[in-house]
Amino acid sequence: MNAGGEATTIDFREKAPLAATANMFLDSAGKLIKGSNHDGLKAVGVPGTVAGLYMAHQQYGKLPWQELVQPSVDLAKKGVIMSYGIHEDALWINEEAKPIDFIYSYFRNAKGEIIKPGEIWKQPSLAKTLELIRDRGQDGFYKGETADEIENYMKKMVVSLLKKI
Questions:
Q1: Are 98 and 105 in contact (CB under 8 A)?
Q2: C-alpha dist (Å) from residue 17 to 44, 51, 57, 90, 154
């Protein structure tokens, strides 16, 4: 709330991809295909968090953007203690994601073991992405290297799915 008593809300929820259509989740009879709007590649949206946080900073921020993002870079590089809850999620994700290399290895240490609760979990890939966001603002996520990586991954997954059909 500002000094004049006005509150502001910024909606930075995900956006539909450019290729999305009004009936992409419907069957030939025009009925919703159960779960299609929540599961699978069609349900993936373009994340809005980076753009929303950057917009909020540009409009209302007092500290330099780089100063705000740096602690996140540091945590990703130095690591955080693996919690029991994230460990349980990691076990499930790794069981489901075996063919997806980067997800399969994301929660693993140098020995290839899933990091256990209480151990330090370092995220160098996340640190690299956060550094780009720190240095380039929202363009560090939506343009260039990170955006290309996401786009290439999505294309790879679509091709992989089409081969199974």
A1: no
A2: 8, 15, 25, 27, 11
In DSSP terms, 114 is beta-bridged to 108
As a whole number of Å, the end-to-end CA separation of the chain is 53
| Residue in the block written with tokens 């955080």 | 80
Per-residue pLDDT 10s for the chain (165 aa) are: 778 888 989 999 998 888 889 899 999 999 999 988 888 778 888 999 999 999 999 999 999 999 999 999 999 999 999 999 999 999 988 887 666 667 778 899 889 899 999 999 999 999 999 999 999 999 999 999 999 998 888 888 777 766 766
Q: How far is CA 87 from the centre of its chain?
A: 18
Residues facing 32 on adjacent strands? 26
pTM of the model: 0.84
What CA–CA distances, in Å, run from 27 to 30, 31, 150?
A: 5, 5, 28
Distance of CA 106 to the CA centre of its chain: 13
Q: What is the largest CA-CA distance in the chain?
A: 59
Nearest to 140 by CA among 148, 129, 126: 129
CA distance 155 to 139: 21
DSSP reduced 3-state for 32:
strand
